[in-house]
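cache lookup: miss for this entity combination. No prior model stored, computing from scratch. Input as submitted by user K.M.:
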Amino acid sequence: MKNRLLKGLALAATMSFAAGLTLVPAQAASEIVIWADETRGPNLTKVFAKKSDWVPGSTIKVVSFSSYDALKDALDKASGTTGPDIFVAGNDWVPALAKSGKLAPVVLTAAQRAQFSPSQFFDLSYGGKLYGVPVDVNNVGMVYNTKLVKTAPKSYGDMVKFYLANKTKLGLKAGLCVAGGGMSWGGLSGFSALGAEPYQMNADGTVNFTKSFDATAFAKNVKTYLLDKNGKSNGFYPATDTGCQDNYLAGKVPFAIIGNWHWRTFAEAGFPMNIQPVPGVKAGTYGKMFGSVSGAFLTSYAEAHGVAVPAKSLLTNFFASTKGQVAYQAEEGRPPAEKGAQKSQLVLGGQKAMGAAASKSSIPQIGAFLNTNAGGANYWDSAPAYWTAVLVDGKDPLVEAKKLAAIWKANVAAGKADL
Amino acid sequence: MSSIFRGKFALILKIIILAVVTAILSLLAQSAVASGEIAIGIFLIISIFALNFTYFTKISIPLKFFVPGILFFIAFVIAPILFTVLMSTYNYQTGNYISKEAAIEQVLIRGVEPDANQTTFDLVSGKVANGSDAVLVSDIANQKFFLSTQDEITFLDAGQLTINEYGVAVTAPGFTELSADELAKSDAYTKVRYKYQDGYYIVIEGQGVGAVFRQALAYDEKSDTMKNLQTGEIYVDNNRGNYVLEGSPEEMLTPGWRAPVWFENYTKLVTDSRVRTPLIKVFIWTVVFASLTVLSTFAFGLLLALALNRKMRGRRIYRSILILPYAMPSIMSILIWGGMFNTEFGAINNLLNTDIAWFSSANFARAAVLLVNLWLGFPYFYLICSGSLQAIPSELQEAAAIDGANPRQVFRSITLPLLLQILSPLLIASFAFNFNNFNLIYLLTGGGPRNTLDGEIAGATDILISYTYQIAFGRNILDFGLASAISVLIFFIVASISFYGLRKSKVMETFG
């Protein structure tokens, strides 16, 4: 029996040793691992397939996730052995990931910093430290269907007037809807055009910590433009983004807010690029959008993998460089963040129009204010909840606006410590 | 056939199977240990010995049947329960994920400050004659060049150097530059802090770039405190996973670490009204949801079973149709139902010619949840009721009929009590299953609607498990500690209900 046990164990040990030698996965020496979502990942793969020597002596591996949420989920669960060295995403995760020790600080030279707008670094910082480099401008724009609307709307009222006059005749399903970025991120313009924003910015680009939006004025605009005389939705602005893109493309919605990553979908469907911000209540004013940047972020795992310096070099040599951004945005199609790339002849008209819309009327996306639940709910949940309450449930717009203002004010006060 | 289990062939087959299993488990153990998951590694090694010992010896025949099951039970039932219980005693949330050692390391990495001008230099990495790591630094703006090691800084005359077209010194006497490959494949030189002036040092920030910093925070292991070297401020361990400024506990250093807070997450369930109020609401709905689901699915399933228990034309076809909802993957069914309840485009509103916002109103959403669960659950009870009805001896019903009982009396006094006796364990199991029916709630309503503007965390259709998920994963601030405490609570509730039900139904005695 003992002999049999020993023989069995010996054989098993031999097999396990052989398996151990051949099968243990390991990160290759000086391999920089990048994580990205389902659009950015494949595009980065294409770019690195064409040119891979951005960091001498290092190789680059891109891991693509099935969705933005899947990437977030993986980052939340990442550990020292499994995490990436760099990931590419929007900036709103910075506070939570930096607070949890998953990001590592980055230092840029003065010359490198000069290639970006200072507000872009604001979006990628936490506690006074910079954790990534700006890759592209992340914003929305409003397009209008030129087959239905002959002249660009100058005010919010112009759009509502057109909708109410043509609702039955053209069988319109809505007047303005959100086709990109969801009712919170994409829908900020819808709020701001009527006078509500989650935080107020001073003229010098700093945050006004004392002021919140005027709930009374906002509610008055909601009543004027979005409700009928019985206090019910007039159908101009739906409370959800369901079906918006399809209805716009089918000619059933004249105005749509779209994300800058899919302007090509609309252009290819035969719609000329009439991109502008959502017009405000007064002619010549515009609703503000999140003119944020996506970033390439350095993780604290790069240090553990022994590739911190090559990873930092990739950030500056590729992600933050003119050449790198032009090459990447040729695939990705968003407006580049770097000044040299913005001027490049290779950047397409749609990308430039989107960038122009953002520069006309935008606020930075400050995760410290938007992500906190200190006021009872974060911006992402409370913003769509307002439209559901008023446009679906028929609740009083002023009462709900006051609740919204109180939530956002408390979130700004709580988020101040995280800046 | 039995020869397969005996003789040399069986022995060789056994050795091969065990060798393969051992190899796979060894591989997993190796990977677990390399990832720092020591407990998992130890469990896998113990499993290897347990399996080999059991199957290569004649210690116990029954054990040969039980060992795999016991190991799986430990790995996938006992261990998760123990881990959940353990985590429920920790401050384990956004900002407090990592170990204390890792947090100290991160705090120190971040605890540096640049000089007033945020100076950066072009540099070349290499070694000096004595073999020390060194950087050849070019201060182009001031036309200064120096060689810096960990311990000394040597200013060089431009005449001694080779300077490239960008004004960067690339060679110096006694300095050997590292190749790009050497730089990329070794990170040792990047960890060195190269000497600079006035207490500042240079660190490598990418190939060819160095930045000037000084250490602003220092860790004192003896007193377990962090000290701000410039202001002298002391940060102490607040015993909740963060270093906080002495006298100002709200000012803390990040990141924090997972720290034991013992029963705080449990007391929060009772004392913190932001947690307690929604928890009570959710608990009540969970009990109502599970009870109504069991009642409705059982009643509808039984009704159909009774109807189809009689001979009728096309009975087989009806029976086949009735189990179709059970044959379809529930995830697909739930998503289809979700679309059918859509306010604008849904089939239900179109059929009824209404514009009900099913998922915006609490009562309509609850009705929708119960309706969909009835659809998903009745075929199960229809099947087991049909089977159980066959098992009730027809003599009992015939005898009652002879004694003058009408069909309703026969059902109430004979069929139903006997059915309930047979089906009690399944009813209890169904209740326990629906108590934790996460898929239905998550996919159909997401727990909503919730009155977000009034600060509600829990939605009208949230059950305990979906509420727990919401706390653990559904928000930007993830609180695994609190979610674990609620999970433990759910475990005890479900276990108690099941145990009580099983005792009442005397099923255990029957098994005994």
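stored under new cache key. Chain B has three domains: 2-87, 112-215, 268-511.
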